[in-house]
Amino acid sequence: MKKLNFKFNSLTMRIWTTFTVIILIIISSISFFYLVAFRTISEKAKTQDLKVSHDILLKTNNFTQPNRFDELRNLKGSDYYIYNVDKNNNASIVNINKSHGLPPSTQTDLNSPFKINDTNIKLWMSSYITPGTLYEKQFKATYNNMKFIFIISSINYGSSGKSYLITYMPEIVDNSLLYMVLWVGLIFIAIGFLTAKLVANYISKPLKELENCTIRIAHKDWTKPINVKNDDEIGRLANSMNLMQKELRRTDEEEKMFLQSISHDLKTPIMVIMSHAEAIIDGVYVESVEKNAEIIRDESLSLEKKVKQMLYLNTLDYVLENNLEKIEINLHRLLTHIINRFEVINNNIKWDLDIEEAIIVGNVDKIQVSIENILDNSLRYANGKICISLKKEGAFAVIGIYNDGPNIPEEHLSHIFDNFYKDKTGKFGLGLAICKKIVNYYNGEIEVTNRDIGVSFLIRYPL
What we know:
It is built from ten helices and twelve strands. With 463 residues, the protein is of the alpha+beta class.
């Protein structure tokens, strides 16, 4: 059962099934049109032609000549006869054209499929004669499962009594067109299977390559790129997957490098803390116990900061998406508050402020973190001066933070906001990555530029 299900779910079977369904719909539509519309139109045409032939006989008043109308396609099998009723009500049939009329099997053979003969049919049609004068009275009736179209008119034939001209035609259904459509449909369905196989193979070959490549990517096998030369949608998908593979490979390598370096970065303060703690326990230390305790405290604070940054970055996406708090934030007031806290850290730094009024909307804690991380970075590298500005430019509030420290190497300038960026000291910092994620969430922009002396950061938040 599973094997059959697999075959049915294959691309070949799906294409063939679709093709077959379309063919069947076309066949059904043609058959319905044939059975309903075509037959109706054909029946009306035959009735009209029979009426014309009947009318010609009435106008020529020549009822002794054999009927040649049945040579026409629509009047195939047609004939006429005269039904006489004398003064004594004795009826008789005058056959004008006995060699024509019904198919030979229905003229005299009672064992024919219709179980009828020529005389019985004519007597049956004559029974539809009604009193009075008739003129081209049309009838459609069935006798022994065979449908007839006949027309009756009163005529002058003979010297006495009443006479009637009856022109008739069996309605023989020609299903050759329907059978031809069915056969052509079956042939197309058979051809469709081969076509579906070729099309499926053509489509599935690059898809199979994409499937194998996806499996390799899932197992972090970046060695072999996807080699699909199509210029269609599949080719564009392959190019996108190759680009995805390159990005995943780069991210994987950066992540490995980050984990190696961050583990070393975390291991160092732990080792310092342990060594100084053991020195206190063993009583073997160079300086005082208080000095060792201060070192342990400082290293613990540094370690705590790194761990908090890692946890904060990992949960930041979830916090931003689920924190719906958006209030008006006075950036002038917020910057003044942040600067007052940072000024006491280093009294040797000169602060140059140019802060205007600006209001934005967001979460005040997150906006504050984004600004503090830039200030913390600037304060770490500044030689003696930090400039902070706040201005309105179009639809944005622009915060400028400049420090007169060393320039950032050009090769690192576009990567300092990455999660795994390593500064010139060889240590990883996550503060700038956190800052960029917050700014991007609020549809803002952040950039860094090297000046002749120092580095300038610009943060743009929508007003």
